[in-house]
Amino acid sequence: MRFHKYHALGNDYIVMDPVDFPGWTAPTPEQIRVICHRNFGVGSDGILWGPLKSVPAQFGLRIFNPDGSEAEKSGNGLRIFSRYLYDQKKVGTAPFTVEVPGGVVEVVIQQGGQLLTVEMGRVSFTSDKIPVAGPVREVINEKIRVQDREFTYCAATIGNPHCMIVLPEISEALARRYGPDLETHPNFPKRTNVQFLRVLDRANIQIEIWERGAGYTLASGSSSSASAAVAHRLGLVDRSVTVHMPGGRIGIEIGDSFAIKMTGTVTRVAEGTMHAELFTTKV
Length: 283
Hints:
Elements lengths: L1 E7 L2 E6 L12 H8 L10 E6 L6 E6 L5 E2 L3 H13 L8 E5 L2 E8 L4 E8 L19 E5 L2 E9 L3 E6 L5 H12 L9 E9 L2 E8 L3 E3 L3 H13 L6 E6 L2 E7 L4 E7 L1 E7 L10
Parallel strand pairs: 2-3, 4-6, 11-12, 13-15
Antiparallel strand pairs: 1-2, 1-18, 3-4, 4-5, 6-7, 7-8, 8-17, 9-10, 10-11, 12-13, 13-14, 15-16, 16-17
């Protein structure tokens, strides 16, 4: 049972190719939880299951969070999976497409696989697409209360849901304190990713991330995409934005109708073999 581990700015994923797991249609939630566990398993922020067959794209991919749930899209996960395809000589430097539950993206690989650009799709702020409870509307500058605070938030989707809160100062402690309750707030029927966002200038923003199904996260491609789009929608930044996160920086280009092009790095970490004994552990 061979695995391949990569990180994208400290956001680490395990690639599991179905050909290396005969008899598996996909890892179960129980298997995912133990594989991703930092003490009892290999340890990661998620699992990338692919390549799979796809009709609209050249490759299919499923993305699993460490709690066993499935994500519709992950910008860092897509970059890592694309780097894996490149390392396995399944793709070269020509553009190619990958299908995830959140849509089809186009990828271009540069610098020997270390830098990748992904056409992430279009951001929508419409409540029924995200989804957010209530009448159909753009979810811009609405109020939400968790614990002892009321925040002003915006919501968006780029194939997966996001809640952005713009503040003059942000911190890891802020994300860890309020992220869990925002993720599971009744406003969000499918839960949500959470970003606390600080605008540095017209070309730079900073975010702290609480990721749905994963918790506090050092970096996120979809969070960077959605946050930059919201900051632009609010008139706070221009179309070219560098997103600063604890794990590093991602470049975002905002096109017409909020089409997002994301560029960031990927680092190859390790490859190895999982032993069957691993799955005797319950977490």
